[in-house]
Amino acid sequence: MKDMTIGQYFPGDSLVHKLDPRTKIILSFTFIFILFFVKTFSAYALALIYLFVITKVADIPFKMLFRGIKSLFFIIFLTVSLNIFMIKGETLFTIFGLTASKEGLRYALFMAIRIVLMVMGSSVMTLTTSPIRLTDGLEKLMKPLTYVKVPASEISMMMSIALRFIPTLTEETQKIIKAQKARGANFETGSLIKRAKAMVPILIPLFISSFRRADELANAMEARLYRGGEGRTKLKELKYKKADYLAYIIVFLYFAAMIGLNYTALP
């Protein structure tokens, strides 16, 4: 659980914590969109500086953002490997009949950095926004969809619950793995097929636990007479403040600088 940052909430009283959840959601999605747009190392360096400043303002240890990357190491490694050998260009080396190109290496590095920054940017949003406020923010942003009969309240609730249960299920998985190892299970040696079969004693209890948690959550919501967003009132209505408008101006200017650096700086 300590290595999973997406879905966790880091309580605090910083300026970032106090921002409207809609502000953080919009800025986070804009940040991710720009990551797909820029294609220079200097622009990515500026994005890393942005995350560093945000964590300092939010009083969150910067190293906490790197914890979530550990669980994605295999995906990053696979992405880098595929891009190095699949993109044609100037040959760097050949191994097992596969040719690595200079262009493929450059694109693979871009992809790896992009994935890392995306995870870190998403983690900042969830670390500084409680699940309840995140749900309210998503519901408010999706409210225009209700005019075309889209259940915005239910969708936002499902998304926030999914984010909240990521670290919970990760912790549950670690407990199951430790319990199976104590019973003599081996997940680290043997052929690929044997390792796949060894995952069955993990997946079955995990699925059972997930369904049990979902059933308990449904019963709890039913006991509290939850009926979606229709006729539902809130203790604290979301309202934009001066800090939110200022955050939009500062961050969008910073994003504009990233885009400008993408065209003016050296790759």
What layout of secondary structure does this protein have?
Elements (H helix, E strand, L loop, with lengths): L14 H4 L2 H17 L3 H17 L5 H8 L2 H14 L4 E5 L2 E4 H26 L3 H11 L10 H31 L9 H7 L1 H24 L18 H23 L3
Antiparallel strand pairs: 1-2
Helix pairs in contact: 2-6, 2-11, 3-6, 3-11, 4-6, 5-6, 7-8, 8-10
Quick recap of the structure?
This protein is mostly helical and 267 residues long. It is 68% helix and 3% strand.
Describe the structure.
By secondary structure, this protein is mainly alpha-helical. The protein has helices at 15-18, 21-37, 41-57, 63-70, 73-86, 102-127, 131-141, 152-182, 192-198, 200-223, 242-264, and strands at residues 91-95, 98-101. It has a two-stranded antiparallel sheet with strand order 1-2. The two termini are 37 Å apart.
* Shape designation: globular
What class do helices, strands and sheet pairing give? Answer: mainly alpha
Euclidean distance between termini CA atoms: 37 Å
Order of helices and strands, N to C?
A: HHHHHEEHHHHHH
With helices defined by DSSP (H or I, 4 residues minimum), what is the helix count? 11
Low-confidence blocks of residues: none
Strand order of the largest sheet: 1-2
What share of the residues lie within helices?
A: 55-70%
Tally of DSSP β-strands: 2
Mean pLDDT: 80
Largest sheet: 2 strands, antiparallel
Rg: 22 Å
